[in-house]
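Quick one:
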Amino acid sequence: MKYKDSDIQVFFSVDDRYCPFLAVAIQSIVDNASKDNTYYLHILHTYISEHNKEHLVKYESDNIHIDFVNLSEYVGALNDKLYTRDYYSKTTYFRLFIPELFKDMKKALYIDSDIVVVDDIANLYNVDLGDNLVGAVPDMTVALVPEFVDYVERVIGVSSYKKYFNAGVMLMNLEAMREFKFEEKFIYMLSIVKYEVAQDQDYLNRMCKGRVKILPYEWNRMPIEKENTDKEHVKLVHYNLAFKPWHFENILFQEYFWKYAGETEYLDEIEIIKKNFTEEDRIKGEVSNQKLIELAAKQTDCVGYEK
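Output:
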């Protein structure tokens, strides 16, 4: 398909069980979209039920287009190499294949499905990346955990933890990534190193370092901020890690999620998910987070210091 450079290209990677939250994300984008723009929302997956497709495609309008892209065959050869842990699925890696899959695009915006947008997403998409490979916001989680600070600086090799970005909201310079032979280099990296802590995000930070445009933090606000109740500078909220309003009460910025969830056809289903989230699930999540910190510390201990 021939796209215009002015078209807003937005990508998601999702599995079937996450479609209710994807619907909330799309609802927020649609509600804040300008009639002056044309938006293409591409949903990368290996399986989405017809039931969920029917719900999601209802968001189409004159300037909103929904595209389902099944990557089962494309990633099949790499399936054994794509490491995942805990509740993550291999769809998290799909963003890395966008440059080669969509060679007719110059630019794309990838966002996770556990987000809501409270501004026109075109304002983020239209940021000039120059010759940088990606644009993204530093990962606030890393800054709050000393073990993660050491890990990203010594194992991943970023010059400062303040430059280690969260890949859940990522503006991609597809032309530059193709020139860089990003996918070819990523597949090579898979064969020589296994990043277990943040998986594809670690690969992205390792490969893109030095060519990352740091974006304003209001485009990736996280509930982990706890002490920061600044709600004036909020354009996108990312309910990452365990900070899910569909699991817990009193999550920072939860009002944005429930506002848009209430407009979707999935509200009842989301409320059932929350009701069924148990104390056992909560404890399991805490144990998983602690093991992740221990894993980061262990891998850092395997790296020497430069004198």
